[in-house]
Amino acid sequence: SAVISQKPSRDICQRGTSLTIQCQVDSQVTMMFWYRQQPGQSLTLIATANQGSEATYESGFVIDKFPISRPNLTFSTLTVSNMSPEDSSIYLCSVDRGQGNREQYFGPGTRLTVT
Amino acid sequence: GQNIDQPTEMTATEGAIVQINCTYQTSGFNGLFWYQQHAGEAPTFLSYNVLDGLEEKGRFSSFLSRSKGYSYLLLKELQMKDSASYLCAVRDPAGGYQKVTFGTGTKLQVIP
Lengths: 115, 112
Known about the structure:
heterodimer; A: mainly beta; seven-stranded mixed β-sheet; four-stranded antiparallel β-sheet; B: mainly beta; six-stranded mixed β-sheet
């Protein structure tokens, strides 16, 4: 398995502000993913982040709203920009070690509340 | 398109066996995951099936039939702590990014 940490674990933010969520993995991984889980819902993929290239966003998610960085093989950030109450959700980082081990693991998540 | 279906809720008795089904229709297929998620927590990896057949891990087993687009998760000797949501997810290699799409999850309640 992989040890994945996220910061912050939770935050309460005001409308119109931005929050950057950090994801740190204990070893190098090829692919990192950012998911959102709104209250009572399943997981929705926001984007895929590979080191050295721009993130690939899913339908309904745009870079201006959710900019992502992937500076190296163990770290990524997701920023939730210009927040509104509809952005209140749990944001989860996930990793796939890639070749030879295709299991996918999740970080503990960041619980975001926008007031 | 992608479509993953699972029952919304199930109830089972402590000590019994429960089978949670998942059917999928995806443009591509490169494996199926099962995750357990307790309320307020992140999903925990349970299994990953790529080939047809049954894989057993202790009290949990997962089955896959690629030709039928069908999987199930079997939980034996149910314990109260097994009350959780169980998420079926399919990896689709379309687009080259090995995207994993989740079903809506099955909320399992284990009763005494």
